[in-house]
Structure formats: C-alpha cells, structure tokens
Specification:
By secondary structure, the chain is mainly β. It has strands at 2-4, 9-15, 22-26, 36-37, 39-41, 45-51, 55-63, 67-69, 77-79, 85-91, 100-102. It has one domain (2-102): Immunoglobulin-like.
Length: 104
C-alpha cells in the first residue's frame, strides 16, 4: 500500500513476513540504479518513506533479490509492454481508479 502524507511524502508499506530483504524500484529510482531498501517493522511489514515529485509514478518491489512484486493496494496497476505488472502512485493529484489497466 502507498499512503500520501500532507507534506508530499509517500509511505510505501508491504506485508512480507518471510522476506529477508525488500527493495523499491521505479521510474523515480531509475529502475533499480538507485533502489530503496525498505526497513522491516514488526510483525512482518516492510516500509520506506520518500519525498516524491508531483505526478504519476510507476514502481514495484524486489523481494529477496529475485521476486518482482506489484503492489495491488497502490493507486492502480498496469501491464507494461513486457507483460510485467507495475504499480502506480499519484503524488499531488487525484488517484487513478483502482484496478487493472493495460498500458497502451
């Protein structure tokens, strides 16, 4: 899930109690070059808070360095041209309708 704060930060949270490491990558991290490592919070949540530029951003989580995981509790999801599900977060605007939307 992604929660937007009044200060323009985005709180990314995902429940993965069996994970050893969770990273956040997206268009705002140059798709892994500057991946954000989430911190573990009991009893199995992983989270990171980021200051983000206004606009629509796409992202996913990398679990234990192998599994690419979309966040279906974010502001929406879409299928990219490679068949990979990406999550969407909208900063400073109205969230998209939640649901599955194939990309053009």
């Amino acid at each position: 899930m992604v929660v937007l704060t009044d200060s323009g930060e985005a709180l990314f949270r995902v429940y993965l109690p069996d994970a050893s490491r969770v990273e956040l990558v997206g268009d705002f991290t140059d798709w892994a070059r500057d991946a954000v490592t989430l911190r573990r919070e009991p009893p199995g949540w992983w989270e990171a808070k980021l200051k983000m530029a206004p606009g629509r951003h796409l992202f996913y989580y990398i679990v234990d360095g192998m599994l690419q995981l979309a966040d279906y509790a974010a502001h929406g999801v879409k299928l990219d041209r490679h068949g990979q599900w990406l999550s969407e977060v909208n900063v400073g605007g109205e969230p998209s309708a939640v649901g599955v939307r194939p990309s053009a």
